[in-house]
Amino acid sequence: MRGKEGKEKREHHREIENLRQQIRHHNYRYYVLDEPEISDAEYDRLFKELEELERRHPELVTPDSPTQRVGAKPLEAFGTYEHSLPLLSLKSVSEESEVRDFDERVRKTLGVGAAGKEEEKVEYVVEPKIDGLAVELVYEDGVLAVGSTRGDGRVGEEITQNLRTVKTVPLRIFSGSACAPLRLLEVRGEVFMPVSEFKALNKELGRKGRKMFANPRNAAAGSVRQLDPRVTASRPLDFFAYGVGRVERGEGKEGGKGEEGGEGKEFSTQWEVLNFLRAAGFKVSPLARRFGNIEEVVKYYEEVRQAREELDYEIDGIVVKVDSLEQQSRLGTISRSPRWAVAFKFPPREEFTRVREIVVQVGRTGVLTPVAVLEPVQIGGVTVSRATLHNEDALRKKDVRVGDTVVVQRAGDVIPEVVGVVKSRRTGAEREFKMPDRCPVCGAAVVKERGRGKGREGPVRGKVREGPVVRCVGVSCVAQLRERLKHFASLRALNIEGLGEKVVEQLVGRGLVSDAADLFFLTKQDLLGLERLGEKSAENLLNALEKSKQTTLARLIYALGIRHVGEQTASLLAERFGDLEALRSASYEDLVEVEGVGPEVAKSVLLFFRQASTKELLAKLERAGVKCEKRGVRGEKEEKMKGKTFVFTGRISMPREEVKKMVEQLGGRVASSVSKKTDFVVAGEGVGGKLAKAERLGVKVIGEAEFRETFL
Fold first, then answer.
1. Same domain, residue pair 458 and 540
2. Are 610 and 700 within one domain?
3. What CATH number corresponds to the domain at position 448?
4. CA 671 to CA 646: how far, in whole Å?
5. pLDDT at position 78 over 60
6. Same domain, 466 and 493
7. Taking Cα atoms as reference points, which of 483, 477, 710, 452 lies closest to residue 600?
8. Does residue 110 contact residue 323 with C-beta atoms inside 8 Å?
């Protein structure tokens, strides 16, 4: 009897797998190639047949089955996922001269044309810059295992169930000779919503009286980040792949690098990567091209710009990448951006509108920024009602007055700014604006300081500050406190969920907090006294505050809001000094020795830690129980680590690259796959097949807490 049942089960399994392969093939033909081979009715028949067989044999349902795209049960919240290799951001340029400068820097760094390198040449791959949401897809043994957002480049949100519903995201990659056997494949790409589908969705939402999306990018991001995957499944999303992270062919086979550092498969060019992705079943932009010189790139830029409005998806430029992966490796990266690629952005979309008023915004470090309050206008699908005027000198240079008709653009298609005045439309009723000599929030005196490079606060993030900066010197300025608290609680700082702008406004307005440390002494009764904050929300916020007390040194340094110290500099300082006390005691000479820390940053750090208010703040944080782990411990720990091989699996609290660097500094090694040579497997949350293999090979498995205690 058992033999008969087993035979029937095998037959059902073969029948189901045959149907799945047929459906995958037709999905690829329809969604990726746009060349269907069968009618919709025939496809529906195959799909219903598979559904019925899986209904009768639920034990044979697998995560990569086409029927699993419909969406799983709703989630309570998204988890986080640490990328094994960072998802780098790109430097943007907007002028032809800048992209030529990029080509010149590439050639100079590589020594192309120099003596002995006359034969070497630089080729480029050009791809459209899709205006969507960057994601990473992780395939284990050919099956989609994890999907996540880019996040901050190191840690993103895990949205696997949602990405499974996107029809152009393969649940299983093709198993042809070009793609198999692959133990691991990390694919980077962009989820987007076609413009035609976006318009149809908004029309339907409007018909139902629901809030509509401002533009296709917001629609894509909002759809992918639904806690209910069934909602995502109902949205018309699409996906283009453009690169790979890690790639592992088989056990112990590492080496060759793909774009962004892919390991394991021998790629030599980005063009090979794109062809590989096509062969694996991914949709790759048909606009991707390879060129032999920068002149051809500039010419193609114009072609794509002219065709932009005819495309059914939003693009805001082209991405230019050095094709040779060996050359990419030699060029390397700077901060969080590669030296071998650049985003060549299209001119931002512009509109005309009228200046109703000019107000002053006070940033977290006291900088006063003039902002134009506008008659609302649609720019690139977004309603713009405020735009930055940068600073007093820029305002005077453009001669912007209240009542003027102005040209407004979204800089980088994101930040609204006033770029010029239509003086021919002046009536004589316009009023000049004068910057205040006192802070509009606290009434304290303001001072003018020499401008410094790129702005880090207010609505001009990333824009060049020309001329003097006007700064409030009030030590108890409420506006600065509000901004400092929002920065302290932000995602890349202590990530305190629920501490939004409206809650901060009330906490400051009611005098419940005077600095960031006071947040940790709030009571439930304090919070229940705030508007629109019920008992459950109050409990959630208190829990979030408690959770945020355990953090990393880099996050804490960044959260403190030290002038000129951004996220990258905070990481460099944490890496060098290991704990907060060492950083507080550092001299000017110690600080400038840190790569990436210049004289001005060093002076700012010294000044910050010399303030009595800083000492009080740090003492209060310590009393509140805010802690961050110490790093850089040597001696006995180094002896334990030396010569040991570690494999990390699942989600851990530290970025993988950071852990790898720490292990290597202490004499250890990090491998990507488990083998007999592995000494320890460090298991985090959501572990996969590596744990089973470790147990099979008798490799010791430890948790993150034990790893930290024993080796760090």
1. no
2. no
3. 2.40.50.140
4. 6
5. yes
6. no
7. 452
8. no
Select the more confidently predicted residue: 460 or 427.
427
The secondary structure of residue 402, as a DSSP letter, is B
Which residues make Cβ contacts (< 8 Å) with residue 648, sequence separation at least 6? 656, 659, 670, 681, 682, 684
110 contacts: CB under 8 Å, gap ≥ 6: 117, 120, 122, 327, 330, 331
CA distance between the termini of the chain: 58
173 located within any domain: yes
- State the CB neighbour count (10 A cutoff) for residue 480: 24
The total domain count for the chain is 5
From the number of C-beta atoms within 10 Å of its C-beta (0-12, 13-18, 19+), residue 261 rates as: buried
What CATH code is carried by the domain that includes residue 601? 1.10.150.20
Separation between Cα atoms, residue 521 and residue 526, nearest integer Å: 10
Encoded tokens for 470: 């006007």
Which amino acid, 436? Answer: P
Residues 327 and 382 placed together within one structural domain of the fold: no
Average pLDDT (531-549) is 91
* 431 and 410 fall within a common domain: yes
Boundary residue ending a domain (284, 310, 345):
345
Q: Output the CA torsion sign for 585, 589, 590, 595.
A: positive
Alpha-carbon torsion (157, 161, 164, 165), positive or negative: negative
414 shares a domain with 270: no
> For residue range 194-241, what is the model confidence (pLDDT) as tens digits?
989 988 998 888 888 887 887 888 889 889 988 888 888 889 999 999
Q: What are the catalytic residues?
A: 129
- Identify the CA nearest to 213 among candidates 229, 227, 197, 228: 197
Is the model's pLDDT at 259 over the cut of 80? no
Taking 50 as the threshold, does the pLDDT of residue 264 lie above it? no
Q: How far is CA 497 from the centre of its chain?
A: 18
Residue 9 has pLDDT above 90, yes or no: no
Domain span holding position 51: 2-61
Same domain, 437 and 523: no
Of 30, 20, 246, 216, the C-alpha closest to 133 is 216
CATH number at 693 reads 3.40.50.10190
**Same-domain status, 611 and 673:** no
Phi, psi of 305 (to 5 degrees): -60, -40
Question: Which position has the token pair 């107000």?
Answer: 359
pLDDT band at 633 (very low <50, low <70, confident <90, very high): very low
Is residue 79 in a domain? no
* Residue that is last in its domain, among 317, 345, 373: 345
For the chain, give the percent of residues with pLDDT over 90.
36
Alpha-carbon distance of 256 to 258, in angstroms, equals 7
Q: Please tell me the predicted confidence (pLDDT) of residue 491.
A: 78
